[in-house]
Predict the structure.
Amino acid sequence: MGQLDLDGLTRLLIQNEGEVIGRLRLSAAEAARVCNVTPRQLIYWTKKGIVTPSPHDEHDYDIYAMEKVIRIRQALDKGYSLEKAAQVVDRDMGSQKTELDRLDGMTAEELEDELRRRLERLEERVQQLRRTLPAALTLARLRRAVGALDRLEHSGTLQTTTSNGDAAKAVAVRLSRAVDELETLLREVQPASA
């Protein structure tokens, strides 16, 4: 196959992505492997009506069923019961479908405006995170230093250090530097958030 043939095939696949994805079907064993569940789990979920096999063949699973299985498995990993996981996944997938239908109904200009607004919100959120992350990291370092100082004090190390108190001085210096960093970062963050 020449480069032109490959480019044409690539364009065709991109144009017909929905159709290609819609036609993709795997057997229960293959789908279970892809979704990282056992075939027995998949068949059990199907019998309970939690997962629906492909409408073309009751022994095959399409991409939409596999997505649901993956999401249910992830919800189970978070500690949900099977029934609650299925409810959460159904709700989330229903919300996504509604949003996709809304986006599909937009003109190209409306969609571009929508995407621009979303990008601006994401950029604002990134800027907020950039402003607060250094302070949060410094706070964590300060907490570790205070914890180390507290452990030394409770173990009696601060009272029994060598005559020059090198261990206590080292901890005090680390704590002092962490506090200085924290104050500097908080001064930088406060005007930006005010």
Remarks:
- Strands lie at 25-27, 60-62.
- The two ends are 61 Å apart (CA to CA).
- The CA atoms of residues 65 and 102 lie 22 Å apart.
